[in-house]
Amino acid sequence: MNIGCHVSIVQGIFNAPQRAAELGAECFQIFTRSPQGGKAPELTPEILEKFSSEMKKNKMTNFVIHTPYYINFASANNRIRYGSVSVVRDELERASLLGARYIMAHLGSAGDMAEEDATKKTSEMLEKTLDGYTGSAELLIENSAGAGKIIGATFTQINEIIENVNHPKLNGICIDTQHSFASGYDWRDFEKTLEQIDSEIGLDKIKLIHANDSMTECGSKKDRHAHIGEGLIGAKAFKKIVAFAEKQNIDMILETEHEKVMTDITLLKSFRGK
To answer: Which residue among 70, 176, 191, 239 is the one 20 to 30 A from 38 at the CA level?
Structure first.
């Protein structure tokens, strides 16, 4: 398994592999467009070739793409809902061109909908997203921290959505350790938490881990990342998470503040083989 972090694509997507390598990352995550909105930069044959060349030059084999923050498959607004379908499908196609293994997406908020209705609507929109898709990149659902009526705070709900959609390119999740902790999955009680996730969705569905410690307590419903070992999940739990990821060959991506992400990468690497 590889350990890496999120990196910027400022001044060109082809700069990402070197930025990751300079931080000691073995894999990385990027946005391919502004996460706040706007048109996606064109991926010309020249850009694709340069990106591929930089991947090889910096000895990177794996990278993933995070979809923009504004995705909402259960919005009451048709434009937002279908815009989300369009953007996520476009990200899948772009990921396939670039050679990314996965893209991951948050699902949005239920708003005024009941949870059951939001689950059905989200499933319906994901079916539209994947209709006719034949690219190589797979779509992962990322769990949420659970604030308000955010969709995907429980692995039970995510599993229901995956089963409803029933598409070969949607068969996995990206677990964010901080989001799950905020939703009530206590990584400090590691074996119990793993058993709970296994019973709700199956450990085989875990394809990627966002490794983030938590500024807020278990069950807080707040999305607040902390550096590894400096939050309430703690280094002891992360040693067990790394051991699990290593055994299952699951890559880990840090989303901690940039000024200390290199320290986080070094620390997670030191937990391997233990």
So the answer is: 176
